[in-house]
Amino acid sequence: MGKNRLPLIRTACGFAPRIARTREYNQMKHAVQELLCCFAAFGLIGAGAAFGEPKETKTPAEPKPPIHTVKKGLFRIQVDLEGTFEAQATSEVFIRPETWTDLTVLKAVEHGVRVKRGDLLVALETEKIDQAIADLETANRLADLSIKQTEEELRLMQASTPLNIAAVERTRRIADEDLKTFHEIEGPLARRSADFMLKMAEQYLANQEEELRQLEKMYKADDLTEETEEIILKRARHAVERAKFQLQRAKITRDQTLKFGLPRRTESVKDSAQRQNLAIGHDKLALSLAVNRKCVELEKMKLGRVRSEQKLKKLRADREAMLIKSPADGVVYYGQCVRGKWTDADSAAEKLRVGGTLSENKVFMTIVKPRPSHVRATVPEKQLHYIRPGLKGNVRPTGYPDLKLPAIVHKVNTVPSCGNRFEAIVTVAADRQAEQLAPGMKCSVELVVYEKKDALTVPDSAVAEDEFDDQKHYVFLVEKDGKQKKHPITLGKRTEKRAEVIKGLAEGNRVLKVYPKNEK
């Protein structure tokens, strides 16, 4: 009570010099002094305080630094990792069509259903592919008929080509013979014939004129009547007239033959022979090319038929694959397991609904054999040096925190899988307790990476490194007389809180818990 009221009373008194020196002030001061004396009499305040004596102020002593006593005990380093249960035996389900791309779902088993090998997982719509197969089968039958027809045409062409070439050769030979005959026989004969016909016309005219003269001479001396004479002479004169016309005609014909007919005939025969000589090579080549073209055409048809048969075979395989069956016994999981994590499950569920469309060559379902299983754990890079095959520990499922399963590290991947994180495969002891665990569940992996029952340890904060050699370490040793000195030690294992001392300290030694900052 006195301690609480004393500051208030002193404060009131402290304001006294600032108040006017009145009678009321002197009376109040006297009353306060009497009150302080009463407090002092009951021991509520000290006598010096009652009479205004100043209280002596003491400087507080500096706190002593905390000291750690070295002793032997259990030193354990435990690493906790995040992990995921993963089945050792899984079978990915996907469809890899050769040619067909319309993959519409008719029905599919639900996620989480247990199936056996050969059970139907997904049925796809097949009406369109069935029609495509039927159309291709018909086209192949027509192609077979076309091939047979072309083969027959080729056979006839190959048989007739030598005959056609012989005919071309014969035509050229005839043309050459005609040209030779014309030059040697027909041309000269035509010229002689024209001359001879003219000569015959001239002779015929001379004969008719002579006959007419003789008749006229004879009729003058005979006894024939004038009527008879006139008829015979008339006929003779007509014969002479005809002979003159024939002679005139023979001259014109001869001139035309020599000037036009014979030269034109000569040019025509020469041109025909030349054309035949030119055509013979072209015709032979054309006949040969026609046979070769037919051979290539037949080869193309056969190649197309082979490809069509291959396409039909692929379509039939695609048709069979559109009834997707389970490749193994297990549980149906939608999506794909990638490094212990299930991906695309929602997308797969959308595709597997009735009317959904599957993507070719993409995993949409996985058949999982729940047992045996292991844990895929993620190892931070800074803890990688602790983890090694054969290391023992425990696994605690996130969904069943009271469940503790013995485990052992089977494999450590020293190549990072994502960022600076590494992976370890941890084998888990399977028992009845683990029956409720399923692949994809999360867990924590507790691994004791180092353990020593009689280790000498100090707080990690008590240790300092040499600024020039990080292999040298020191503590501040506290001797019995309280003196402190820098002391070298050799460290073993070390954590963020504790450090193992394997040389330099003994049980019972005392060191500063925190190494002085100004001492290195």
How would you sum up this structure, described in words?
- By secondary structure, this protein is α+β, with helices and mostly antiparallel strands.
- It has three domains: 2-50, no CATH class; 81-124 and 327-446, Beta Barrel (Elongation Factor Tu (Ef-tu), domain 3); 129-319, Helix Hairpins (Orthogonal Bundle).
- It is 45% helix and 27% strand.
- The strands form three sheets. Strands 2-10-13-12-11-14 form a six-stranded antiparallel β-barrel. Strands 3-5-6 form a three-stranded antiparallel β-sheet.
- Helix 4 (127-221) runs antiparallel to helix 5.
- The radius of gyration is 66 Å and the shape is rod-shaped.
The termini sit apart by 52 Å
Largest sheet strand order: 2-10-13-12-11-14
Computed structural class:
alpha+beta
Average pLDDT, to the nearest integer? Answer: 83
Which percent bin holds the helix content? 40-55%
Q: Rg, please? A: 66 Å
| CATH architecture classification name of the largest domain | Orthogonal Bundle
Count of the separate structural domains: 3
Identify the notable features of this structure and list them briefly.
disordered N terminus; 520 residues; 3 domains; Helix Hairpins; Elongation Factor Tu (Ef-tu), domain 3; alpha+beta; three-stranded antiparallel beta sheet
How would you summarize the topology of this molecule?
Layout lengths: L1 H13 L8 H19 L5 H4 L16 E3 L2 E22 L11 E4 L5 E2 L4 E5 L2 H95 L4 H96 L1 E3 L4 E5 L1 E3 L2 E3 L1 H7 L13 E16 L11 E6 L7 E14 L2 E8 L13 E18 L4 E2 L7 E6 L5 E11 L3 E6 L6 E3 L8
Antiparallel strand pairs: 1-19, 2-10, 2-14, 3-5, 4-7, 5-6, 7-10, 8-9, 10-13, 11-12, 11-14, 12-13, 14-18, 15-16, 16-17, 16-19, 17-18
